[in-house]
């Protein structure tokens, strides 16, 4: 075979051209999952709005915001975007109406996916923090001041957006994309797909940093949420001034929050 000097050439057996039938099945499965999840989240919003005690207004609004994030993600990712990522190459195209009808590119939609996903984690953290602070005894050292509480919330929101915003600049130029397709002709079929993009064949250092920051955000927020769950459970069961019924209600509220995220 002819030897190429293109620096973006790699040795691979990846020659899959996804069939129209597989794309149709993929799209329908995404839509079914998305619509089902949207209906469940909508039901949860109604139950939260009318079944959560009025005294827990801030907590109730946090839960509603969490489910709104779920709905936005499902509507965008499953119904309007419908991404396809033909791994192992870091590339993709989309089958939803935003790409096939509106003509939008994969990259912009993928950035939205990142933002909504990370902000959903942040919203869950905020709900957990609010519940934790609500149950803290008045003179507890773990009770945050209003300023520290607002700072923690703002930091969660801002830090969750850093990785997705950095990913905005991860898109290759048209010239670099053409070079990668030229060096890897087994990927040429993707150029005919709606909204296609190729980020990298071998993962570029910039992408490693960006994806690493996204994963770090997810890991840190997840660990903080686990710590908040454990600490809140400890507070509920160790506070002697609370009645058994009050402890049961607080524990049930924490379990419900955790199950909603799952």
Automatic annotation (TrEMBL):
The keyword Ligase does not apply. Keywords: Membrane, Transmembrane, Transmembrane helix. The keyword Plastid does not apply. InterPro entries: 7TM_GPCR_serpentine_rcpt_Sri. The chain crosses the membrane at residues 28-50, 62-86, 106-127, 148-170, 206-230. It holds the Pfam family 7TM_GPCR_Sri. This is G protein-coupled receptor.
């Amino acid at each position: 075979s002819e030897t190429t000097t293109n620096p973006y050439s790699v040795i691979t057996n990846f020659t899959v051209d996804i069939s129209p039938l597989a794309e149709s099945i993929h799209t329908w499965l995404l839509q079914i999952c998305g619509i089902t999840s949207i209906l469940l989240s909508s039901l949860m919003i109604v139950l939260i709005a009318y079944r959560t005690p009025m005294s827990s207004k801030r907590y109730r609004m946090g839960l509603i915001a969490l489910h709104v994030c779920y709905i936005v993600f499902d509507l965008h990712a499953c119904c309007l975007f419908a991404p396809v990522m033909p791994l192992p190459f870091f590339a993709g195209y989309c089958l939803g109406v935003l790409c096939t009808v509106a003509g939008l590119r994969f990259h912009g939609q993928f950035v939205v996916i990142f933002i909504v996903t990370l902000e959903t984690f942040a919203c869950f953290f905020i709900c957990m923090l609010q519940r934790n602070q609500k149950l803290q005894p008045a003179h507890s050292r773990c009770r945050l001041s209003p300023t520290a509480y607002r700072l923690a919330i703002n930091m969660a929101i801002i830090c969750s957006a850093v990785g997705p915003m950095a990913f905005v600049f991860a898109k290759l130029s048209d010239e670099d994309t053409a070079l990668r397709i030229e060096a890897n002709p087994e990927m040429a079929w993707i150029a005919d797909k709606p909204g296609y993009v190729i980020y990298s064949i071998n993962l570029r250092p910039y992408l490693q940093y960006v994806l690493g920051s996204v994963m770090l955000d997810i890991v840190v927020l997840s660990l903080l949420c686990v710590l908040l769950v454990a600490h809140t459970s400890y507070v509920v069961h160790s506070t002697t001034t609370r009645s058994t019924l009050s402890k049961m209600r607080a524990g049930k509220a924490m379990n419900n929050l955790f199950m909603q995220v799952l």
